[in-house]
Design the sequence.
C-alpha cells in the first residue's frame, strides 16, 4: 500500500495544476505520466481531505438588493444587474454586460418581431458577442441616422446592424440619413419621403427597442461623442441647455424634458415618447459617466427594462436613495 504522505503530496500537486494553473485533467495526466481517472481520483481525494476548499459566491444574492431597489423605485418590468468586481475597470464591466445581453437576447427574440436598434459603443460590444440563433421573420430597423461631416458613409452603424442580422438570419433596414441634419427644414422635407417614412413607421411599431445612454465622457466614451458627430458649437449648446444624456442622439435634461433642446430638431433619432409606448424598451448601461443620464431617463420613464453592471448599479442606487 502506498505511503499516505506520498498520496497527499500527489494530490496537492495535481490540485495546484488544476486550480491554480487551470490545466485540464487530460493535460495533467500527460504531464505527470498517469491516467485521467487517476487525476480525477487525486482531485476528489484532495477535496475529501480538506486540501482544497471550494467557495461559491452567490452573485445573484449579492446583486438582488440592487435590482429590487431599482425596480421598486421606478416600477420597471425587469432589472438585470450583472455581477463584476469593481477593481476590474469599466472596459471589463462593459464586456460582462455585453456578454450577458447577447445571451439574454436569445431568450426574448421570437419569430415575426421588429427590433429597433440604436448604434454606438455599447451596442457594438453586444454585437461582437452574439450567439448564433436563427429567428424566422425577424426584422431589425436602425433607430437613428449615422452619417456625419467627417465620414462619407455609415459603415460603423451598418456593420453593427448587419452583425445582428447575420446572427439571427434577420432582415435589416438601415436608416440612410445623417445623424444630425444641418437644418431642421431639411429634416422636415426628408421625413415626407416615402422611403424614409417606411423606416419611421417600422420604428414606431417595433416590439423591442435596444439602446444605451449616451454620455460625453467616461472610461468607455459613447461613440457619438468620440466619433466627431458633434461639432464644438453643438457641445456648447448642449451644455447650455443642461443636457445630461441622449437616447439614439435625442438629448434630454435631468428633468426629462427634451422638446425645446435645439439640436433635437435636427436629430434623426425617434421622439423619446416612443420609449414610453413600446412594449419592451431594453436599455443597456455600463460605466459611471452614464449614471446621471440613466437616472434622468428612469425618472422620465424612457425605459422599462434595464441591464446594468453591478458597480454602476450601486452608484445609481446611492444616488436616488440620497434624493
Sequence:
Amino acid at each position: 500500500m502506498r505511503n499516505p504522505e506520498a498520496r497527499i503530496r500527489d494530490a496537492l500537486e495535481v490540485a495546484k495544476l488544476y486550480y491554480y494553473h487551470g490545466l485540464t485533467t487530460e493535460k495533467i495526466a500527460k504531464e505527470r505520466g498517469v491516467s485521467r481517472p487517476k487525476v480525477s481520483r487525486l482531485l476528489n481525494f484532495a477535496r475529501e481531505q480538506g486540501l482544497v476548499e471550494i467557495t461559491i459566491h452567490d452573485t445573484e444574492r449579492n446583486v438582488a438588493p440592487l435590482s429590487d431597489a431599482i425596480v421598486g423605485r421606478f416600477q420597471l418590468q425587469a432589472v438585470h444587474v450583472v455581477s463584476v468586481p469593481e477593481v476590474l475597470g469599466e472596459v471589463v464591466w462593459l464586456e460582462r454586460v455585453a456578454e450577458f445581453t447577447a445571451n439574454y437576447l436569445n431568450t426574448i427574440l421570437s419569430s415575426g418581431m421588429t427590433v429597433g436598434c440604436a448604434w454606438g459603443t455599447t451596442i457594438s460590444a453586444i454585437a461582437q458577442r452574439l450567439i448564433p440563433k436563427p429567428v424566422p421573420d425577424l426584422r431589425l430597423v436602425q433607430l437613428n441616422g449615422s452619417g456625419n461631416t467627417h465620414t462619407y458613409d455609415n459603415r460603423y452603424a451598418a456593420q453593427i446592424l448587419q452583425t445582428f442580422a447575420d446572427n439571427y438570419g434577420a432582415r435589416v433596414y438601415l436608416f440612410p440619413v445623417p445623424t444630425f441634419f444641418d437644418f431642421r427644414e431639411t429634416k422636415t422635407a426628408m421625413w415626407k419621403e416615402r422611403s424614409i417614412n417606411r423606416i419611421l413607421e417600422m420604428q414606431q411599431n417595433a416590439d423591442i427597442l435596444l439602446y444605451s445612454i449616451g454620455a460625453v465622457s467616461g472610461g468607455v466614451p459613447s461613440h457619438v461623442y468620440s466619433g466627431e458627430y458633434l461639432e464644438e458649437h453643438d457641445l456648447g449648446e448642449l451644455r447650455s441647455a443642461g443636457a445630461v444624456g441622449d437616447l439614439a442622439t435625442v438629448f434630454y435634461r435631468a428633468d426629462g424634458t427634451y422638446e425645446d433642446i435645439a439640436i433635437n430638431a435636427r436629430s434623426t433619432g425617434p421622439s423619446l415618447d416612443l420609449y414610453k409606448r413600446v412594449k419592451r424598451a431594453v436599455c443597456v448601461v455600463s460605466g459611471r459617466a452614464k449614471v446621471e443620464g440613466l437616472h434622468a431617463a428612469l425618472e422620465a420613464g424612457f425605459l422599462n427594462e434595464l441591464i446594468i453592471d453591478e458597480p454602476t448599479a450601486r452608484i445609481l442606487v446611492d444616488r436616488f436613495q440620497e434624493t
